[in-house]
Amino acid sequence: MNDGTNSNPKAEPFALAALFQSSLIFVAIGLAYFGLYDHDQPLSFAEIREKLPIALRWGILGVAPMLTILVLARSNWSAMKDMTEATNNLLRPLFAQFTFFEVLFVAVIAGIGEELLFRWAIQGGISHLVGDRLGLAAGLFVGSAVFGMCHWVNATYGVVTTLVGLYLGLMMVLTETWVAPAIAHGIYDLIAILFITDRLPVKLPAAAQTEKDL
User: Fold this and answer.
1) 3-class DSSP assignment, residue 5
2) Which region among 72-76, 138-142, 163-167, 168-172 has the lowest average model confidence (pLDDT)?
3) What percent of the chain has pLDDT over 90?
4) What single DSSP character describes residue 6?
């Protein structure tokens, strides 16, 4: 008998993840309302359409260096073991419940939401407020630091995500569009989630797998 409760408990984690990532878009727009955004990148379909070719090239090719994180995460390096353990404990149980299309949706919306917030609004906004090369450096540093802090699970994870933030921030500077890092971010998240949930058809060599010390 149906008592009106949710008959699919697995739908709740997906709904919360999708809602959270989607909310970042509105946070970015809220900051933009107060002037904190990249004034050289008006948020319009015309701007996105104009920059889409270069964004696709950089976004697709630019994800390759990011994939080294997955290789290092399965190495025997002690610092990366800590990150892998934290990922397995926190993220793997969550995303293991998601279907492929749910993972795809969350990855895409995370790429859009997080890059709008951390790159377009925070990095671009600070760069605009400070101005000149100092502003460019300040925006890149602050945007990446905030990105790392918001992804802080442990020290290694925080440092790695801060470096990823710097990489994505430089990609935005070079391409002059937030769409390029959004594409790279989304593709990486998709591959990483499939990887940590053992659904990626590419396996690392056995010697590179993380092993507990005997």
Assistant:
1) coil
2) 72-76
3) 74
4) -
Written as six digits, the tokens of 11 are 């739908």
Of 150, 117, 146, 140, which is closest to residue 32 (Cα–Cα)?
117
Q: Residues 147-176: pLDDT tens digits?
A: 999 999 888 899 999 999 999 999 999 999
Model confidence band, residue 9 (pLDDT cutoffs 50, 70, 90): low
- 61 vs 197: CA distance, rounded Å: 24
Distance CA 42, CA 53 (A): 17
CA dihedral 192, 120, 160, 158 (to 10 degrees): -110
Contact 31, 125 (CB under 8 A): yes
CB burial class (10 A; 0-12, 13-18, 19+) of residue 48? middle
- Enumerate the H helices of the chain as residue ranges: 11-33, 45-66, 68-73, 78-90, 92-95, 100-114, 124-130, 132-150, 155-175, 179-196
- The per-residue pLDDT for range 16-35, each reduced to its tens digit, is 999 999 999 999 999 999 99
Measured between alpha carbons, how far is 26 from 23 in angstroms, rounded to an integer?
A: 5
Q: How far apart are CA 39 and CA 127, in angstroms?
A: 9
* 79: number of Cβ within 10 Å: 15
| Alpha carbons 25 and 43: distance in angstroms, whole number | 12
Question: Of 201, 144, 145, 148, which is closest to residue 167 (Cα–Cα)?
Answer: 144
